[in-house]
Amino acid sequence: MRDEVIAGLTKEGQKELPSKYFYDAVGSHLYEAITQLPEYGLTRAEERILRTHAREIVVRLPAGAMVAELGSGSGRKTRWLLEALSRRRPTAYYPIEISPRALAMCEREVGGMDSINVVGVEREYLDGLREVAARRRAGQHLLVLFLGSTLGNFERPMALRFLKDVRQILAPGDALLLGTDLLKPLPTMLLAYDDPLGVTAAFNLNLLARINRELSANFDISQFEHEARFNAETSSIEMHLRSRCAQTVTVAGVEVSFAAGETIWTESSHKYAPGEIEEMALASGFGCEAQWTDDEWAFADTLLIALGENS
Ligand code: AVJ
User: Fold this and answer.
1) Which mutation among 77, 146, 149 tests ligand 1's pocket best, with the greatest number of atoms within 8 A of CB?
2) Nearest residue CA, atom 9 of ligand 1?
3) How much is the pTM?
4) Ligand 1: which residue has its CA nearest to atom 5?
5) pLDDT value for 76
6) Given this model, what pLDDT does residue 74 score?
């Protein structure tokens, strides 16, 4: 974390911080609060999809597959799928998370379920997935869950790279259930990332507070403000932290200077056009088996099947 933070803050031009560091104890709880906000429809939309279509999804999955989830979060949405799966047979579930807090929340949420064996994997996504794939029995299929539009945090070329990397770890016939937030009217998207209660602002600013706590930095949190904007070129909502004045901060012994009004880019959440997901899937070695969308909030869960070498 130290090296990535220093590299991002000392970069020429636009300063940046990796969004994966939002989720310490405070950040994980703030994100949970965001998912309850009326302005942030994403999580509820996906929960409605998984709740309403759980059985339909499960019958399309390879039988007896073990389940790996990339970035499980609290695991609340996943319950609906796991319930439908475990009604057919006992299922092994491997949540993969770098945040021990999120992993603990997830193990608590899912741990009590009958016929589900939860084994948390505290690793980066691809490392964790390789580890889980190595544990499968001969011929056993894998279902990878990548929900909540976490893919949207990658720049488009990185998202494609990531899907290709996942495909490489999978065998033909393995499945990937991919959750993606879709493009919607600008005011709706902006409010979702700049809510009137300031929960998202707190979530964003907590990144600086975390860096203070863990890298003995001295950010004055009151001298930064939350900003959400839409980047039409990349079709993504960007979150930034704007320096309210000219100031110098020390981070792990390194001095970082800010001009008044300068920003740190902390996250992009890409919003997809409906046809785009199938396109990305095909370009990364998956076939599009089915797609479910929500009526209230434009969001899609797409079931992708890893194609064989010749298909
Ligand atoms: C957890 C990555 C899906 O991008 O919408 C929520 C994180 N950031 N509000 C998103 C987030 C600001 C969220 N994801």
Assistant:
1) 149
2) 193
3) 0.93
4) 269
5) 79
6) 67
Binding site membership of 42 for ligand 1 (Cβ less than 6 Å): yes
**Ranges of the chain with pLDDT below 70:** 72-74, 309-311
Ligand 1: residue of 153, 189, 266 to mutate (most ligand atoms within 8 A of CB) is: 153
Q: What is the pLDDT of residue 88?
A: 86
Between the CA of 179 and the centroid of ligand 1 the distance, in Å, is 12
DSSP per residue over the chain, as a string?
Answer: -HHHHHHHHS-SSSEE--GGGG-SHHHHHHHHHHTTSTT--HHHHHHHHHHHHHHHHHHTSPTT-EEEEES-TT-TTHHHHHHHHHHHS-EEEEEE-S-HHHHHHHHHHHHT-TTEEE--B-S-HHHHHHHHHHTPPTT--EEEEE-TTGGGGS-HHHHHHHHHHHHHHS-TT-EEEEEEEB---HHHHHHHTS-TT-HHHHHHHHHHHHHHHHS-----GGGEEEEEEEETTTTEEEEEEEESS-EEEEETTEEEEE-TT-EEEEEEEE-B-TTHHHHHHHHTTEEEEEEEE-SSS-EEEEEEEE--TT-
Mean pLDDT, the chain, rounded, equals: 94
